[in-house]
Design a protein that fits this description.
Elements lengths: L1 H5 L4 H8 L8 E3 L2 E5 L2 E7 L4 E7 L7 E7 L6 E4 L4 E6 L5 E6 L3 H4 L8 E4 L2 H20 L3
Amino acid sequence: MACALLNVFDAPVVQNIMSFVPPDPEFDTLYGTVEIEDVKHYITYGGGAEGGFVYFADQEKKQGWYRWDRGWFQEASYTKIETGQVVFLVHEDGSEEIGVLPDNWEDTVNIDRLAETVMIADAYFMFELSREIADDDFVRDHAGN
């Protein structure tokens, strides 16, 4: 868009116009999960130090989404995501991404163009997901008994 505007306006005017255009949200590829202290952590990078996203529901930490990371043989550190909405994207090829949309995402982001499936990971979604996981664990733990 900026290139097209440069054909009509001077660079300072284009920079001013672009300052009003919200940036596209950034997403991280979801590589898998790991259990740390019985909590599912979503991995977005690894191979040494690792990290990603985690949702705390019934823990000592305040409920919500956090970014996490840890180095080799170190405990994980956590930073609360204070603003925005965490989302999962599932693409046609089956690849998955996770990221944070801005608070006003309904007004600024066209989620239909992000991926085939977009799951808004709000508190209700995470509660339902935790119930499904608990039901699956119960069935697995009691199968054949």
